[in-house]
Amino acid sequence: MERTLVIIKPDGVERGLIGEIVGRLEAKQLRVVAAELRTIDRPTAERHYAEHVGKVFYEPLVAFITRGPALILIVEGPGETWKIVRTLMGATDPMEAAPGTIRGDLATITRENLIHGSDSPESVEREIAIFFPHRA
Q1: CATH number, domain with residue 110
Q2: Which of 48, 52, 116, 134 is catalytic?
Q3: What span, in angstroms and rounded, lies between the C-alpha atoms of 36 and 2?
Q4: How many structural domains is the chain composed of?
Q5: pLDDT tens, 61-120?
Q6: pTM here?
Q7: Distance (Å, rounded) from C-alpha 89 to C-alpha 96?
Q8: With contact defined as beta carbons under 8 Å apart, do 117 and 85 qualify?
Q9: Is 48 a catalytic residue?
Q10: pLDDT at res. 136
């Protein structure tokens, strides 16, 4: 079994979509092994989005992820679980996300696209260490 990090972003929590999103993960036979509802503080957000420092969307991204509670999950499944989650999420831009994906069905704008999932095995390890240091 492999793990990946998933964040249901503040817009997903605000819109009451936690059950819908977690249900889609579970329907794909993925298992939530850790979960915490919390407002991400700025230092944690800065560590998480460090690769985007200096980009035009960096400050709005940090402001968005820290604006309210997010549900942070470790999800477990078969090999390359991170790829399974990324496929379920759909394209970053909801207008390009396929119907049947979380973003394709539920999101409307790129900046508020409901969900984050690690994008590589290296990101899985780095991100779990940021959000769940005791489980890394």
Answers
A1: 3.30.70.141
A2: 116
A3: 19
A4: 1
A5: 999 999 999 999 999 999 999 999 999 999 999 999 999 999 999 999 988 999 999 999
A6: 0.96
A7: 12
A8: yes
A9: no
A10: 66
